Amino acid sequence: MLTTNIRLREWRQDDAPAVLAAFQDPELSRQAPWPVVTLQDALGWIASWDGVGHAFAVTLGGRVVGNVAVARIDAHANGWVSYWTVREARGRGVAPAAVEELARWAFRERGLFRLELGHRVDNPASCRVAVKAGFLAEGIERGKLVYDGVRHDVERHARLATD
Ligand SMILES: CC(C)(COP(=O)(O)OP(=O)(O)OC[C@H]1O[C@@H](n2cnc3c(N)ncnc32)[C@H](O)[C@@H]1OP(=O)(O)O)[C@@H](O)C(=O)NCCC(=O)NCCS
C-alpha cells in the first residue's frame, strides 16, 4: 500500500535520538559521512546539512521515519537527491512519496530544473524508489563507489522540472 500521509519538515535538534537509532542499521551507517554512534554524532549529522543542501525529516503519524535531501545545488539549477527510511517503515512506499514531495518543493519553491540521484546496482529497493518517484534511468556509471576495497557500479537517474 502506498503511504500518502507522510509529511516533510525541517530537522530539529530534538530529532537526534531518532537519527541515532536510524543509523544503527548497517545499511544506513555507510551513508553517513562519519559513524553516528552517540547523540553528539547525531546532532552533528543534523547540523552538517547547513549550507550544504536542504534535508527534511520525513514523518508519519508524527514519528520520524526517514530523510530526504537535495544537495550539491549548482549554477545550472541541478541538485543531488538522497534518501533513507528507518527499517520499521520500509516497504510501505514512504521513500517514493517523500522523494515525490521533495521534488515538488525543489522544482516549485527552490526553482531547480534537474534532480539527479544514483544508487548502487545491487540496491534494487533504491532503484524502485527512484522509478516510482519519476526519476528516469540514464545509465550506469562503472566502478563509481568503493566500499571495503570493492568498487561498485552506480545507476544514475534524473527527473526534470518538465517531466
Ligand atoms: C531504499 C529505501 C530508501 C526504500 O525505502 P522504502 O520506504 O522502503 O521504499 P518502498 O516502500 O517504495 O520500497 C522500495 C522497494 O523495496 C522493496 N521492499 C518491499 N518491502 C520491503 C521491506 N519490508 N524492507 C525493505 N525493502 C522492501 C520492494 O522491492 C520495493 O519495491 P516495490 O514497490 O517494487 O515492491 C530503504 O530501503 C532504505 O533506506 N535503505 C537503506 C538506505 C538506502 O539504500 N538509501 C538509498 C541509497 S541510494
Automatic annotation (TrEMBL):
Protein name: RimJ/RimL family protein N-acetyltransferase
Short name of one Pfam family: Acetyltransf_3
Ranges where the N-acetyltransferase domain occurs: 6-153
PANTHER family for this protein: ACETYLTRANSFERASE, RIBOSOMAL-PROTEIN-SERINE ACETYLTRANSFERASE
UniProt organism field: Nonomuraea roseoviolacea subsp. carminata
